[in-house]
Structures are given as C-alpha cells and as structure tokens.
Specification:
CATH class of the largest domain: Alpha Beta
Number of strands: 14
Order of helices and strands: HHHEHHEHEEEEHEHEHHHEEEHEHEHEHH
Helix content: 25-40%
CATH superfamily of the largest domain: P-loop containing nucleotide triphosphate hydrolases
Length: 479
C-alpha cells in the first residue's frame, strides 16, 4: 500500500485473515466506498469447495443473472492478492511469496468475452480504496505481451486471452487459475480444456473454472456432468470424476437480479426455457426441436460471413420482421443448382428498439441489391400489411408467408428446417444468436416469449429453397 501509516488498523489487522475468508475479503477490501459486498450462499459454496484442493476443473452452470461473473471476479481478485494455491497453506516466507510466479487467465469463446471478465476484475481493483494500491501496472498490450494484463505489486499477472481458433492464442504461459466466461459458447471446448488449458495448469497445480449459462447438451455438458454429484434419491452418475466439481446456480437465489426479467421467463410457462435460463440446468434433448449434434454440424468454421454474390449463382433470403421491441432478421442462402447443401452467405439482424424502420428497410434493400434473390417474408406481424407495402415501394420482389393462426403452416416451416438439418443440407459460418435460438427451440413449437427471429428467418429461407428453388435472375427495378 502507498503509505502504511495512513491505512486504518482494521485493514492491516484483517489482511492475513481475508486469505481464508471470502466474506471478510469482499466486504472489507473488494467493495467500493460506501458499499459492503458479500458473496451469496451459492457463490460462497463454490469458492470454498475449490479452495480445498483436489480439483482440476470446476464448473458453475447458472441461470441469467445468477451471479456467475461476480463469483469468478471475487475468486480471481482474492486469489491474485494472496497467491492462493488450492489445498496449500498460506505463505510463511515473504521473499518466497513475492518471488513466486503467479498467473491468472481470463478467457472465453472470443477475445470479447475474455476481456469482459478481465475488466470486471480490473474494475474491482480500481474501485477499492485499498486494493487499488496493490496494482503495479494495467496495460492493453506490450511488445512482449499482446493481450491486456494487470500486474500486481506482488508479481501476480492477470491477463485476457480468448479461446477462439481452438485456443491457439493461449501461449505457453503456465497458469495457477483459469477463469472461463461462458464456456457453453466456446467452440471445441473439450479440445481447449484437454489439449490447451490442462497443459497450462498442471505444472503449477492450477485449476480450470468455468462460469456460464448452459446452451443445450453439447460439449460443455459433457465436461459439466463429470463433476455433478447425484441428488438424493437419484441414480449414481456414471460419468462422475473425483477431480471435477460442478454445481448449479438458480437466478432466483440472487436477490440483486432483475426480478422483472425473471418474471418474464416464468410467465412464458415454457419449461425448457425456465429450466435453462432460470434454473441454469441443461435441457433434455427430447423436449427440443433441433438436436444439439445437428446444430453443431451445420456450422463450418471455415466459412466467413458475408460471402459476396457471384455471377451465375442464385440466392434466396428469409426475412422475419420484428415488432416494436423485437429484431428483424434476414438470412440469405446460396441455392445455386437447387441441390443441397445450401450455404448461408449473409446474416442480418437489427432492431430491439434501437433501429428505425427507415434503417432496416434501407439495409434490406442493400441485401436485395447485393444478391438479387427472392425474399420469403414473414407476414404475420401486426404491421405485416404495411411492411409488405413498404417492400413493394422499394421494388423488392418477395413472396409473403403468413403462418399466424395456422399451426399447420408453422409446423411445415419448422419440420422442413428439421429435415434440412437432419440431412446436413445447410451449412453456415458460426452465428452465436442462431445457435442459441435453435438449441432452445421447443419441439412443441410453443415459442411464446422467446427470441426466435433467426430460427424463423432460416426456416423461411429453407422453405423457399425447397418450394421454389432457383427462380432465375430477378429484373431489378425501382418505381
């Protein structure tokens, strides 16, 4: 600290004790002035469990706003300050403590998510009147370190590196603690954990910890279930591994969460949605329209959007118009030859109450001019007739598809998309929003209260590819 003589005694006298007491650490040291933060019971349970040692991996799967990021933040800050080694006693020699290398990695599916977690940790140091003086340097990058990092005066480094491109950007550094933000969104998460991160932690006896909302029973589920102890009265978990710890976190256990958002999910009465977004649990695939394996097979990491139009190619675009606070989505498929696989060449999504109809229609006209393909348009919105008239005014050729009030038409759309996926007849670059919506879409098609614009847009394009196929070049005109 800058001047030990000016620090109140309470901070000096309790520092050593705060190593083993997360409540004391967060309330006395990691809280900004005028605040008194303390971990919630489920956050404390997770932190205490991984402190015992004996774990190589630990996973917290929670609902929206269940306190996952704050759990990671407090663990990261406390461990960085005290150079905590799970299951090991406190340092007894000051020189050894200061000289011992200690590294923490904040990571996630892309650099963006890695930096988001890192920034919450940096903000904790900056906002604390005590911890800010333990920071030596904060840099976005240097010639030797290409990623953002914070260095403490005790020699601890905390850096942010994403796991994109199968984790190849995580260099040969050894880590005492790895914090993964939203592991369910990490492509090839098993490869990243087993082939990249494990090799970076074993030399230090470190631990890999992940915090996020589940996204179907994909690769993250396979990692998570290895540490899930069976509930009382339930069958034993045959996948249980003693060196992995997993636990759920329910959004309703966080009194600081936005309760109105939680009520919105509960009011949908959509059990799969509640199970995942509130309870933080993995949904049974039997309740879902699209199997996780088929969704993953649709995405091809070699494809990059947008793919420019080419002469001699034919395109079709599915457009799902949003309402006042919803998103308008347009997905364009290359359907040249009329035979699958059809390739997504353009993805567009805008709205959410922050875009005008003038902007959206201008963007749709640009897409039309770029690809000159027929639009298959959702005409079910309350302003559907008006939107159709606007498209006509712009000279956009389209085929309306109205499925409101007709379960058969909606079923036809979704069933066709299921067939396309099952037969591997659609290929796309990875689109996170599309993946999230597809893996959550219910088999009974009761999607009230859910975001479905990307699913319906792809379904409309897929329906157009099947029913109409290449229709020849459209003569472009503007009235």
């Amino acid at each position: 600290m800058k001047n030990m003589a000016t620090v109140p005694r309470i901070f000096l006298e309790n520092w050593d004790a705060s190593r083993d007491d997360l409540v004391l650490f967060t309330s006395l040291y990691a809280s900004p002035p005028g605040k008194n933060y303390e971990p919630l019971p489920h956050q404390l349970k997770f932190a205490r469990e991984i402190r015992q040692g004996g774990y190589d991996e630990a996973w917290m799967s929670g609902g929206n706003s269940a306190g996952k990021t704050w759990t990671a933040k407090w663990i990261g800050v406390q461990w960085a300050c005290h150079k905590i080694k799970p299951g090991k006693p406190a340092w007894t020699d000051y020189d050894s403590f200061m000289k011992a290398p200690y590294n923490i990695l904040c990571t996630g599916p892309e650099q963006k998510q890695a930096v988001e977690l890192w920034e919450t940790i940096v903000a904790t140091f900056k906002d604390s009147p005590i911890l800010r003086y333990r920071v030596d340097e904060i840099r976005s990058s240097t010639r030797l370190k290409q990623h953002p990092f914070i260095r403490l005066k005790n020699g601890t480094y905390i850096e942010a590196v994403g796991l994109h491109d199968k984790g190849k950007h995580v260099e040969g550094e050894a880590y005492d603690l790895v914090l993964i933000n939203e592991p369910a969104d990490v492509r090839n998460i098993i490869h990243c954990v087993e082939k990249v991160l494990t090799q970076r932690t074993w030399r230090r006896g470190g631990i890999i910890s992940g915090f996020g909302t589940p996204k179907g029973r994909g690769e993250y589920y396979l990692l998570f279930r290895k540490g899930l102890k069976p509930e009382e009265g339930k069958l034993e978990n045959p996948y249980l591994e003693p060196r992995v710890f997993s636990m759920y976190a329910d959004s309703r256990d966080n009194p600081f969460a936005d309760q109105s958002k939680i009520q919105q999910f509960l009011q949908t009465r959509n059990q799969p949605l509640i199970t995942e977004r509130i309870e933080g649990k993995f949904i049974e695939e039997s309740a879902l329209a699209f199997p996780e394996g088929q969704i993953e097979e649709m995405f091809d990491d070699k494809l990059k959007l947008p793919i420019k139009s080419s002469s001699g190619h034919f395109y079709i675009t599915g457009v799902d118009f949003g309402r006042k606070e919803d998103y308008t989505c347009a997905i364009t498929l290359d359907i040249t030859g009329g035979y699958p696989p059809f390739t997504v060449v353009n993805f567009y999504r805008k709205g959410g109450g922050v875009a005008t109809w003038e902007e959206i229609l201008g963007d749709l006209l640009t897409i039309y001019n770029d690809y000159y393909g027929e639009f298959i348009v959702d005409a079910t919105a309350s302003a559907g007739d008006m939107q159709m008239e606007w498209l006509r005014d712009l000279g956009i050729s389209f085929i309306p598809y109205q499925f409101a009030g007709s379960p058969a038409k909606k079923s036809n759309l979704i069933t066709n998309l299921q067939r396309l996926l099952g037969n591997k007849e659609i290929k796309s670059s990875y689109i996170n929003q599309l993946r999230e919506e597809m893996h959550l879409y219910p088999k009974n098609m009761d999607d009230k209260g859910m975001e479905t614009d990307t699913v319906m847009s792809l379904a409309l394009a897929g329906f157009g590819a099947k029913e109409y196929g290449p229709m020849g070049s459209i003569e472009h005109y503007v009235r």
